Amino acid sequence: MSLVEKALNKLRSSTRPEGVRAQVDSSLRVGRVVDAEQPLASGDALPQPRSTIGAALRTVRIDQHALREGGILPAQQHERELAHQFRTIKRPLIRHAFPQDMPGFESGHAAGRSIMVSSALPGEGKTFTSVNLALSMALEKDHSVLLVDGDVAKPSITNMFGASGEPGLLDVLTDPNRRVESVILSTDTARLSLMPAGTRSAVATELLASARMRQVLESIERFDSRLLIIVDSPPILLTSEARVLAGLFEQVLLVVHAGQTQQQAVLDAIEAIGEKPGLKLVLNQATHVGPAGNYYGYGYSYGVAASDQGKANQAGGS
Predict the structure, then answer these.
(1) 102 secondary structure, DSSP code
(2) Which pLDDT band holds residue 168 (cuts at 50, 70, 90)?
(3) Separation between Cα atoms, residue 113 and residue 137, nearest integer Å
């Protein structure tokens, strides 16, 4: 039995716990875009990212309180637990992205600094995972992070951070003469930048599947050799273009909602992506996860027995 099959078997016995929501309300607003030189309410200067991408004349100010109120971040008493679980998730992704940092590195190893986060179908927590993963990776002192809203049909991240009127990914895909860095926004979270979905287009899904998309990713990676790119993509089974998009990424996270996602939908999504070494399942809202494998478990039921929660925290593979 493959690791993927073992992970899927766990879905049949998982139950949906009560706790922090793992989905993003489309009306949720946790940020706003301002001129970079506009002072903060506290009078403090904006934190500087590890490296600056483009001019960064516009800045997203993130409201941590709104993130918590909206369920994107947990209550303070549970913050350490969720932070630990996302550290567990991000660590093998970073190892895969920067194999040269690991002992015994061989030059033939394919790195994957651009990471696609998706799900089989909508409503499984992929945007929640994208945001928390980006925030967790931004804590790394040796890396900067770019969060890209690639779910152009339902741009939850763009709307959430108050950037719905800003140019973004679709604009650089439509106009090959537009500089990629011109649509990247800095944030008041150190080492974290944002690329909105951009101006709506009738051929948006085709643009995502175009050769220009590959050029944009390669261009972003050239900005900074230590940059990590998190792309919140459309659900895999929703459009054929999302499947093509997955082929551009060395690393793909497939978010699976425990107790809700149908096993066949997950199998179909995996078949569409292909069982590449960089494909990992994120088991969302799991109350119990078995022995370590090529998947991760993180749950928002804080009443889980310590022994079971420990297994969930340890789940993962490179």
Answers:
(1) S
(2) very high
(3) 12
Q: Range of 32's domain?
A: 3-102+109-314
pTM comes to: 0.79
Return the closest-CA partner of residue 300 out of 136, 71, 88: 71
Q: How far is CA 140 from the centre of its chain?
A: 15
Task: Give the residue, 106 or 87, on which the prediction is more confident.
Answer: 87
Closest listed residue to residue 249, CA positions, set 269, 273, 265: 273
Q: How confident is the model at residue 113 (pLDDT cuts 50, 70, 90)?
A: very high
Instruction: Name the nearest CA neighbour of 87 among 303, 298, 286.
Output: 298
Q: Say how many Å lie between the first and final Cα of the chain, rounded.
A: 18
Q: Are 144 and 51 in contact (CB under 8 A)?
A: yes
Give how many domains the chain has, as a whole number. 1
Q: Are the beta carbons of 164 and 196 closer than 8 angstroms?
A: yes
The tally of CA atoms less than 13 A away on the side-chain side of residue 212 is 18
Q: Which residues, 6+ apart, have CB-to-CB distance to 276 below 8 Å?
A: 250, 252
For 101, how many CA atoms within 13 A lie in the half-sphere containing its CB? 13
- Convert the pLDDT of each residue in 232-265 to its tens digit: 999 999 888 888 889 899 999 999 887 788 889 9
User: What value does the CA radius of gyration of the chain take, rounded to a whole number of Å?
Assistant: 19
> Do residues 301 and 287 lie in contact, with contact meaning Cβ atoms separated by under 8 Å?
yes
Whichever domain contains 77, its CATH number is 3.40.50.300
Query: How high does pLDDT run on average in the chain?
Result: 75
Query: Whole-angstrom Cα distance, residue 129 to residue 188?
Result: 20
- Give pLDDT tens digits for 267-295: 999 999 987 888 888 888 765 444 444 44
